[in-house]
């Protein structure tokens, strides 16, 4: 067979070898039904595509938020480890203040610890660390941890009257709650005596 005869025989067979035979609709109704089905399928695929795009955008935003939080709070572990150092320096200052200030050695120790504490607190503040205010304020379970309750005259109910350990925030996130003593009884927050 010659090349021309091969081409003629392929064209007579109808498939040409490149695409599958297509079923042609036999009536207009079948064609319209097929068109409606294809439009519905296209709409469904478009809806799926829109949902996929929205999900991809949500994942991108979540990743950006997690990255931002990571960068914002990356120093949290280090700061938690430094807080006991601040506590010990504060205790040393408190102890030194109770001792006789007549001795020059005690006064210089007090001054040295005070300068060290001031520098350390400055470094922590530079990282966004802030102390939780507790004394004289109403008890807040989000910021304070009550270790005891005392009946105290002149104090309102649920007022923080003692602080055993200072609490700290890192950029508005609680690092450590303040360990506090809370007043019981006394006056209500409005200032009137508590009813029996």
Q: What's the story with the biggest beta sheet?
A: 3 strands, antiparallel
Distance between the termini: 117 Å
Low-pLDDT stretches are 7-16, 190-196
β content, as a range? 15-25%
CATH superfamily of the largest domain: Head domain of nucleotide exchange factor GrpE
Whole-number count of domains: 3
Q: How many individual helices?
A: 4
Question: What strand line-up does the widest sheet have?
Answer: 1-4-5
The arrangement of helices and strands along the chain is: HHHHEEEEEE
Count all strands and give the number.
6
Shape: elongated
Give the fraction of residues assigned to helices. Answer: 40-55%
Assign the structural class, choosing from mainly alpha, mainly beta, alpha/beta, alpha+beta, or little secondary structure.
alpha+beta
Rg from Cα: 38 Å
CATH class call of the largest domain: Mainly Beta
CATH architecture call of the largest domain: Roll
Descriptive notes:
The protein is α+β, with helices and mostly antiparallel strands. It folds into three domains: 26-72; 75-127; 129-196, Head domain of nucleotide exchange factor GrpE (Nucleotide Exchange Factor Grpe, Chain A, domain 2). It contains four helices and six strands; from the N terminus they run ααααββββββ. The protein has helices at 3-13, 28-72, 76-98, 104-126; strands spanning 129-131, 144-151, 160-165, 168-170, 173-176, 178-184. The strands form two sheets. Strands 1-4-5 form a three-stranded antiparallel sheet. Strand 4 and strand 5 form a beta hairpin. The longest helix has 45 residues, at 28-72. It is elongated. 8% of the residues are buried. Mean pLDDT is 80; it is low at 7-16 and 190-196.
């Amino acid at each position: 067979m010659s090349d021309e005869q091969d081409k003629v025989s392929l064209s007579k067979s109808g498939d040409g070898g490149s695409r599958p035979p297509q079923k042609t609709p036999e009536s207009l109704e079948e064609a319209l039904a097929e068109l409606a089905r294809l439009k519905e399928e296209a709409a469904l695929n478009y809806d799926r595509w829109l949902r996929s795009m929205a999900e991809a955008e949500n994942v991108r935003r979540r990743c950006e938020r997690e990255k931002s939080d990571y960068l914002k709070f990356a120093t949290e572990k280090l700061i938690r480890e430094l807080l006991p150092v601040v506590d010990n320096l504060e205790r040393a200052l408190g102890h030194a203040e109770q001792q006789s200030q007549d001795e020059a050695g005690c006064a210089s120790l007090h001054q040295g610890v005070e300068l060290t504490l001031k520098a350390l607190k400055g470094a922590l503040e530079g990282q966004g660390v802030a102390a939780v205010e507790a004394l004289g304020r109403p008890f807040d379970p989000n910021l304070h941890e009550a270790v005891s309750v005392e009946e105290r005259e002149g104090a309102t109910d649920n007022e923080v009257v003692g602080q055993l350990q200072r609490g700290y925030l890192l950029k508005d996130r609680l690092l450590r709650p303040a360990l506090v003593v809370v007043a019981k009884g006394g006056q209500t927050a409005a200032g009137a005596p508590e009813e029996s």
